[in-house]
Every structure is written in structure tokens, then in C-alpha cells.
């Protein structure tokens, strides 16, 4: 981590975790299913990543894709995942929950934060689905979240930049606002300069061809519009280093 800023890289494999650290990431957000915005990873992935990297690993607690309105059974899963991730080396957790009318689910978040203690907790991009971001931010401050990850309630952090700037001004240092969503080498400087953020979140991934020689192109393992079976996305050391350099020069 360079002085004055922190780059968090979201990863879903050991290879990506190692590459992110080599490139200069200050923290990892460990997930599975990045195509769905990130779901809870396996315990095995957490344990092996912790063996290979020294930077903090924050673990996503999200039992499924889709919205952030959870059933009682899904809450049971989240509580158990928090318990397991804490006991197997997570340095922090990333979670969030909303009510049906688009507000932060205060009661559930209090329960999950209590279960997470003493680990620091980030409220994830459920924030981008709230009805009133200014009100939601005050709720997160009062609950005790350490930071909020947001694209400014828009499709990318660049498009949501005006709101990101507003909530950073509103936060007044009481909670960290971390821009994330579509951050690349082409827009990072604008986002940092335009927001005043000191942390940012990215994936910095490149496509990597599968090593498979035999390929059955008639079969897909998921939905019709899933990721290609013979291509991987991994964090790219060069991209991480480039983003690191841009942030260092900007801040």
C-alpha cells in the first residue's frame, strides 16, 4: 500500500490473489462468482489464499445473486458463513442487506455486525440499490460499518462520480467511501480527482486462454449467456501495477 491511498482488488482465485498482491494491491476482496457481482467464496479458497498472500483478505458474505432482500433461511446461511470465515482467517467481511422498500435493513445489519465482531465490515454495493443514498449513509455510519463500496448508484463509478463526491463530503471522515465499479486505467485518475476518495476497488482482470487441448464446444456449464468454458478472467499484475501508479501520481 502506498502512503495516502489503498487499492482493493476483488479476486475469485488463488492466482488472482497472488497477482493482485504482486501488483501492489493493499487489500483483497475474496469472492466467488464475479459474474454475479461476487458471492461467498469457499472456505478452501480462503484458506489457500491466506497461505499465499500477506495483505488483508476481506471475505464477501452474500449467499446468492440478485437482490439484497434475504429470507430467514438465507440469513441463517449468512450467519454461519460469518462464523466460519472468522474462524478460518478472514481479516474483514463484506456484506449488506436491504428492506423491500429500498432502505438499509438496520435490524439484520446490526445482527450481522454483532456476529462479525471484532472484524471490520464493509457495506457492499447493495448501497447502489437504496432509495435514498444520503439517508442510507447516515444509517451505515450509525451502525458502525467501516466503509461502503459504491458506484454512486449508477452503472459505473465514473457515471456515479457526482454522487460519490457528495457522499464523501457528507461522510466527513466518519466512514470510508470506496468507489468501485468499472474502474480502469482510463478512468481512475478522473474518479480519484473528482471524488477525493482515498481508497478504490477494482478487478484489474484480463482474459486468459484455457490450457485445454480437447474441447467440446457443444456444451456449456451454465446459462446460455454464461462465461466461455475455455476462457478465464484473472487479475493482471501489469494492470494492478498501472492502477497503483496512477493512484500514487494522483494522490
From TrEMBL:
Homotetramer. It comes from Lates calcarifer (Barramundi). This is Copper homeostasis protein cutC homolog. The keyword Nucleus applies. Pfam families: CutC. Its main location: cytoplasm. Belongs to the CutC family. PANTHER family: COPPER HOMEOSTASIS PROTEIN CUTC (PTHR12598), COPPER HOMEOSTASIS PROTEIN CUTC HOMOLOG (PTHR12598:SF0). GO terms for molecular function: copper ion binding. The keyword Transferase does not apply.
Amino acid at each position: 500500500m502506498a502512503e495516502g491511498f489503498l487499492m482493493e482488488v476483488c479476486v475469485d482465485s488463488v492466482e488472482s490473489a497472488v497477482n493482485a498482491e504482486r501488483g501492489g494491491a493493499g487489500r483483497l476482496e475474496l469472492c466467488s462468482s464475479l459474474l454475479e457481482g461476487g458471492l461467498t467464496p469457499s472456505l478452501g479458497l480462503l484458506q489457500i489464499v491466506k497461505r499465499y498472500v500477506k495483505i488483508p483478505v476481506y471475505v464477501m458474505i452474500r449467499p446468492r445473486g440478485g437482490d439484497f432482500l434475504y429470507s430467514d433461511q438465507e440469513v441463517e446461511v449468512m450467519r454461519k458463513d460469518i462464523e466460519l470465515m472468522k474462524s478460518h482467517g478472514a481479516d474483514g467481511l463484506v456484506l449488506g442487506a436491504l428492506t423491500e422498500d429500498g432502505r438499509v435493513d438496520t435490524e439484520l445489519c446490526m445482527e450481522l455486525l454483532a456476529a462479525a465482531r471484532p472484524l471490520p465490515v464493509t457495506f457492499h454495493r447493495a448501497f447502489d440499490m437504496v432509495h435514498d443514498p444520503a439517508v442510507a449513509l447516515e444509517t451505515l455510519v450509525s451502525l458502525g460499518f467501516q466503509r461502503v463500496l459504491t458506484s454512486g448508484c449508477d452503472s459505473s463509478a465514473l457515471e456515479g462520480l457526482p454522487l460519490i463526491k457528495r457522499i464523501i463530503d457528507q461522510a466527513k471522515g466518519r466512514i470510508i467511501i470506496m468507489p468501485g465499479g468499472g474502474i480502469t486505467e482510463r478512468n481512475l485518475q478522473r474518479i480519484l480527482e473528482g471524488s477525493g476518495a482515498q481508497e478504490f476497488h477494482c478487478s484489474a482482470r484480463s482474459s486468459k486462454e484455457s490450457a485445454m487441448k480437447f474441447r467440446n464446444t457443444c456444451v456449456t456449464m451454465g446459462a446460455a449467456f454464461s462465461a466461455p468454458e475455455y476462457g478465464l478472467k484473472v487479475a493482471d499484475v501489469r494492470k494492478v501495477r498501472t492502477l497503483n501508479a496512477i493512484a500514487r501520481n494522483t494522490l
